[in-house]
Amino acid sequence: MTQFAVNEPAEKPAAFYRPDMARLRQIAAAAPVADETMASHILRRAGEPLALADLASLLHGVLSGDRRTTVAVLQASARIRRHLFGDWVVPMAPVEIANTCASDCLFCGWRLSNRAMKRMRLPVDLALLQVEYLLDLGIHYIEFVSGDDLRAVRETLPVLIRETRDLFRRRGVDGKVSFCTLALTQVQYGALREAGADNMIVWQETYDPTVFRQHIVGGPKAFGIGDDWKTVPDGDGCQFRIESQERALRAGLEVAVGSMLGLNPDICTEFLATVEHARYLAAEYGASPDHPIIIGMPVWNPITTHETDLRPGAMPSLAQVFPALAALYLLALPDRGTWVFPNCRVPMRTQVEAVRAAGAFTSTEVKLGPGGYLPSILRRLDASDPAAATKLRSRVLSLLREVEGDAESLERALDEREQFVHHYHAHEVYARELRRNGLRLASGTRIP
């Protein structure tokens, strides 16, 4: 079992991790801004889990725009990354199954109150068609994603997991099945594990209960749910979500953690809470190269229905500091059993720079509208099997209803159903850019 030293000890909770936000805010506020000299002194200990106070100082230096501190952080992390993972990175891709949602999160394009968002639940066979497309690309880590749609999670997701597991067996693929949905109970996680799931992803959004309540104002995400799938009246949705990883681990699943960068203006405290949570999970439940804890980096991006976007107009871009934030996560958790996960909410060059500095796990070709890969599949079929292409195009048009049949119109309509704006490039473009930066995509779901 991997053990991480937590340098500022807190009282151990009786049942689940509960962040002491006041203590973490105090650490963040008291930490001086690291200049190049201070950063060099701290980074002599790189390879050991750095103290929270030291991580806070380095982050302050990065956020202040000190280029020399930022470079020192990136270089120290890159050395550790190469020592732990060589030049390998595991690719993943999501398959969206529904953008319908019962929760009202003011930052999200899928929020219940967003009437401009066009909704769709994807039929199982069309979801599986996209899984096959991704397997053909060599991506064997498949993530099913939905909004807080209880029907999709309760009824459709178990079927997809079982069918994908069977597809892996038929094709001789040593793959993993992940899902990113609302926070669930241990009983519900156990049922999905029994269906064949390997991993759950729940982004905390924010560990600060006040910020959580400001942005998440209704539905199961605001209050949590019970084993009966009903929203808990007056429940604590923030803490229910924080506890979700432990419930999943107790049910036998691997987990991912991460808060949304930028949602809480106090970036440093949010970062420290994420680090402390990941360290706690690794120490209590273990982390290994075969069963890693994934540290995600979702960024608060604009939503695709621009006219209903509630994101502040003066919201600063975090793309410039994104690679250094990834590096600080690895410096906090330097172990083969924890994988930092830079994703495509930032431009490809920024994402690849973050992978080179810290990432063992990354997304390549990503379409986050339900059915987002279908236009690419149609292009292939137009060249190889026109009759099958015609049949599939008719199916997709019957779901969308409002668009013409050409691939570009279909692509625009499907992309408009995405939750947030992402940066899209084909898998082979990502692979080429990673190779150009001295990195290689693993052919399976494990670091060789």
Mean pLDDT: 93
**What is the gyration radius calculated from CA atoms?**
21 Å
CATH superfamily name of the largest domain?
A: Aldolase class I
From the structure provided, what is the oligomeric state, counting identical versus distinct chains? single chain
Shape: globular
Q: In percent terms, what proportion of residues is strand?
A: 5-15%
Low-confidence stretches: 1-14
DSSP strand tally:
11
Order of helices and strands: HHHHEEHEHEHEHEHHHEHEHEHEHHHHE
Strand-pairing-aware structural class: alpha/beta
Looking at CATH, which topology of the largest domain would you report? TIM Barrel
What's the end-to-end separation, in Å? 20 Å
CATH level-two architecture of the largest domain: Alpha-Beta Barrel
Number of domains: 3
Work out the helix count: 18
CATH level 1 name of the largest domain: Alpha Beta
Fold and architecture overview:
- The chain is α/β, with parallel strands linked by helices and 448 residues long.
- The protein has 3 domains: 57 residues, no CATH class; 307 residues, Alpha-Beta Barrel (TIM Barrel); 34 residues, no CATH class.
- Helix content is 46%, strand content 10%.
- The protein contains 18 helices and 11 strands.
- Strands 1, 3, 4, 5, 7, 8, 9, 10 and 11 form a 9-stranded parallel beta sheet that branches.
- Helix 12 links the parallel strand 7 and strand 8.
- Helix 2 runs parallel beside helix 4 and helix 15 packs antiparallel against helix 16.
- The longest helix is centred in the middle third of the chain and has 22 residues.
- The N terminus is likely disordered.
